[in-house]
Amino acid sequence: MKFEHVVHHSGRNAPPLGAAVWSLMTGFLTGDGTRRFAWHTTHVGPHIIVRGQAVVRTSAGECVLGVGDMFCLMPGTQVEYAEVPDAPWQYYWLHLVGTGALDWALACGFDPRRPWLRPSDPAAALACFRRVHGMLAEPRTLRPHRIVAELHALADACSGEIGLELFETTEILGDLLLQTAW
After folding, report:
1. Are 116 and 69 in contact (CB under 8 A)?
2. Residue 63: alpha-carbon gap to chain centroid
3. Contact (Cβ atoms closer than 8 angstroms) between residue 83 and residue 31
4. For the whole model, what pTM was predicted?
5. Using H for helix, E for strand and C for coil, what is the string for the chain?
6. CB of 83 within 8 A of CB of 54?
7. Per-residue model confidence as pLDDT tens digits over 96-136
């Protein structure tokens, strides 16, 4: 397998108005069985494995990831990752910025000590990465809020949460209002 790395830049350094997270760049990397990286970064960088395997390591431990699994570079966390020589990888990655980028990663379920997870819906997560990659490949037709919508869909595909805490709180408040005599 030949090493290849396709990168697209959004041309915007900040989220569009009304958004707190933005994809500055995206990439698709095809490995050759020899690639390894180490990052101590200030941005949020989710990755999804499309083919092969990766070993991801932090000071808290390591994990072998396969197709559909994700890991995330997180501010202040040293992350090392390498492809397994007998199972060269392909993966998508995003470079996220904005005041809400770290909150986005936490909402997905990433933990700075163990920044890897299996999305609740791996196929939907992969589809989001592909769509963001495709949209950033066409900067002349860029629609920033569609990209932000994909980032929210990706968080949903990772966590599978539907905001139960808010629903339960609203339900309790509704019951109290019905019981209150005005």
Report:
1. yes
2. 17
3. yes
4. 0.86
5. CCCEEEEEECCCCCCCCCCCCEEEEEEEEECCCCCEEEEECCCEEEEEEEECCEEEEECCEEEEECCCCEEEECCCCEEEEEEECCECCEEEEEEEECCCHHHHHHHHCCCCCCCEECCCCHHHHHHHHHHHHHHHCCHHHCCHHHHHHHHHHHHHHHHCCCCHHHHHHHHHHHHHHHHCCC
6. yes
7. 999 999 999 999 999 998 899 999 999 999 999 999 999 99
